[in-house]
Amino acid sequence: MNRSTKGQLIDIIATGAYSVFQQLAYELSQPDNQSIIQQVVMWSNGPGMQPKSASNAEDQFDELMLALNIPTKMPWREKLVLLRSLSPDVLIEAGLKITHHQFRPWTDEVFVSSALFSDIDSGDFAKRLRAREIRVMIGECRDEHFLYGTHHTPDNSLTSLRKRIEADYPSEACDALVNLYYPKGALPPDCKDWKDAFGRLYADMQIHMLQRGLLNALARGGASHLIYRYRIEFRLKCVDNIYPPKWGVTHASDITIWFGAMGSESKLKRKTWSQKRSFGR
């Protein structure tokens, strides 16, 4: 977050576009006289779906407690004392071992409202965005799925894929996704195996499809003039030092465009290239 001098509006450009969206959503739920955000930049991830319920979050927390050998029946104050005494490395290692290893916000009715996505669908979210004239920059890379397919990749089966996505999304949403993408339990013809299918599904859920759903809702709500949308289909040569060329314009390969190439292209070439291209709505 980049905060200007006191009393002025601020721009939000944070790591994790999902986090940026949740902060924006919370801002729009607050009174107008407390508004401080003028524009947001959401590089990649879209909002996805309604975050997990309290019971879902509690199940994940109990799983973490067991991985850390902390009794789940212990009073919560004592749990906090123990958790705060552990090193970050211990917490991270335990978090990576459990089934629900992705830690996202949950619907707590304080920071995340249970009406969040119904407000988006009804146009109320767009109405509030329009009233405050908050601009939103949001977009995608052409081949997001290659890198996403490496993030805690499941075993090569539909059962494993279903189990993996439940680390991110509510169980009922996972059932709906499996029924939608694989109605007969068969591998789609454009996927070489179930690991590839996971990468494509995950990219759709993180970016492509649900980002389009958000943009459609904002447009229907009269806020399309506030949206600055981009799609990256160009990859700098220096990205070869990070990701295999066969991955194309995959997730995060655009970092070198936004923040400068890390290697082969000269500063002059980067400047000339950036001057010739602009990102429209």
List the helices and strands and how they pair.
Layout: E1 10-12, H1 17-28, E2 37-42, H2 54-67, H3 76-85, H4 88-97, H5 116-122, H6 124-132, E3 135-141, H7 145-148, H8 158-165, H9 171-181, H10 194-220, E4 227-232, H11 255-259, H12 267-276
Parallel strand pairs: 1-2, 2-3, 3-4
Q: Can you walk me through this structure?
A:
This protein is 45% helix and 8% strand. It is α/β, with parallel strands linked by helices and 281 residues long. The chain has two domains: 10-51 and 107-147 and 201-276, no CATH class; 53-103, no CATH class. The chain has a four-stranded parallel β-sheet with strand order 1-2-3-4, covered by helices on one side. α1 links the parallel β1 (10-12) and β2. The longest helix has 27 residues, at 194-220. Residues 1-14 and 276-281 have low confidence and may be disordered.
Number of strands: 4
Question: What number of domains?
Answer: 2
The rounded distance between the terminal residues' Cα atoms is 24 Å
If you compute it from the alpha carbons, what radius of gyration comes out, rounded to the nearest whole angstrom? 21 Å
Described by the principal axes of the CA atoms, the overall outline is globular
Oligomeric form: single chain
Order of strands across the widest beta sheet? 1-2-3-4
Main sheet attributes: strand count, strand direction, barrel closure: 4 strands, parallel
**What helical percentage do the residues reach?**
40-55%
* Structural class category: alpha/beta
